[in-house]
Specification:
This protein has about 180 residues and is α/β, with parallel strands linked by helices. The chain has one domain: Leucine-rich repeat, LRR (right-handed beta-alpha superhelix) (Alpha-Beta Horseshoe), CATH 3.80.10.10. Helix content is about 15%, strand content about 15%. It is built from four helices and seven strands, in the order βαββαββββαα. The strands form two sheets. Strands 1-2-3-5-7 form a five-stranded parallel sheet, with no helix packed on it. Strands 4-6 form a two-stranded parallel sheet. The longest helix has 11 residues. It is globular.
Length: about 180
């Protein structure tokens, strides 16, 4: 579907996967109020997550750059993660190769329903440490060097950075950050 504005014609859609989203904005997706699962791989022209704040029923959100971009050290910048803060139904959040211009992870700290969180290593360690402290109130955290993502209630930490680097962060070393 080249013209994503036509998605408004399908208001009852609950799951949507898009490869290569070419619109300049996620506004057409904001009309899908019943959406529970959204996955968008490659969204080169989008600069704001603001329209996603309308998706109050969303339980799973996956936003990723193309793997080739991630491996080359390139990543996608959006203004802020603040628009995601009100998505209280979110259980799964994966932001791979996606950073925020304001360099602030704190809006994600209020997502108390999170069971799985995967983030790229695009933020200062202090940001990860603060996020871990906030999230640890409702998700138990452990460092697993082989897998650097949250899953269920057993791990919460940043995922591998572009270029294969990882920044391990767990409640034990979060205080040192």
């Amino acid at each position: 579907m080249e013209r994503f504005e036509e998605l408004a014609n399908y208001p009852n859609v609950t799951e949507l996967e898009i490869m290569d989203y070419r619109s300049r904005s996620f506004v057409p997706l904001g009309a899908l109020r019943d959406l529970r699962r959204l996955s968008v791989i490659h969204f080169p022209h989008v600069s704001s997550f603001e329209p996603l704040s309308e998706l109050r029923a969303l339980e799973e959100l996956v936003l990723e750059t193309l793997p080739s971009g991630d491996a080359s050290g390139k990543f996608k910048l959006v203004g802020s993660f603040r628009p995601l803060a009100g998505l209280s139904q979110l259980r799964v959040l994966k932001l791979a190769g996606v950073g925020a211009e304001d360099n602030d992870l704190s809006p994600l700290g209020g997502l108390t329903g999170l069971q799985e969180l995967a983030l790229g290593n695009l933020f200062p360690q202090r940001q990860f440490a603060r996020l871990l402290q906030e999230i640890s109130q409702y998700v138990e955290s452990h460092h697993d060097p082989a897998h650097t993502r949250a899953k269920g209630h057993d791990r919460v930490e940043p995922s591998r950075a572009p270029g294969g680097h990882q920044q391990p962060c767990s409640p034990n070393n979060a205080k040192d950050a």
